[in-house]
Here is the input.
Amino acid sequence: MKKRLLKLLKIFSISIISIFIFLVAILYFSLHKKIPDGISGPEADQFAKNIQLAIHHDKFLDTDYIQWTFRTKNHYLWDKKRGTVEVKWENYACIIDLNNPANSTIIGSQDFSENEEKKILQKALANFNNDSFWVVAPHKLFDDSTTRKLVTLADNSKALLVTYSSGGTTPGDSYLWKVDKNYLPTSYQMWVSIIPIGGLEATWEQWKTTQSGAYFAQQHTLLGFGIPISNLKAWND
Here is the structure.
């Protein structure tokens, strides 16, 4: 009786795993898209410049501080001029030196081993690299080691494909920016190493003009799930 029960449980487990794999395969093949080809050159660069005009990129460059909360969990105060950022999540708080991460420190008197401290600081920097991109990505179209291509979509509208060959936590990622008639971003499709399905699309919504004059989106939606950017402020000394 016991052997029979174990056999049935094994068959049931295999069936569940098979169904799961089947559903994942369906999801992958229904959502996955190949990265589109485009044309680099002056037209692509001008398209990118038009986007940055729409989001007041000049004001962003002059901004001293940016503050936000990502998904109500991770909290940031970025001192752009000094190149440092205060990162808080759960019970952790760190000051990350973006110019020289080795100078980063953990705030508070908690007793961590050298290895624990290293992991905490690495996580803080990785969180900042990811979460800040959801705030300032349109301001990074001309970062070092980026390429820009103008893509013609199925409806004959234009979009901008930006690829990052280095920098951040996951270099090599590509983003296809879609814009409205005023070149304000409405969404981007992603081909990124941390997501196995290529071409997933996230919205860029609820744009806000901050005190410094820079323009940022406060809401994203990906696969029906919201990615809120709350407590968003940007100002100068």
Observations:
- The radius of gyration is 21 Å.
- The CA atoms of residues 34 and 97 lie 37 Å apart.
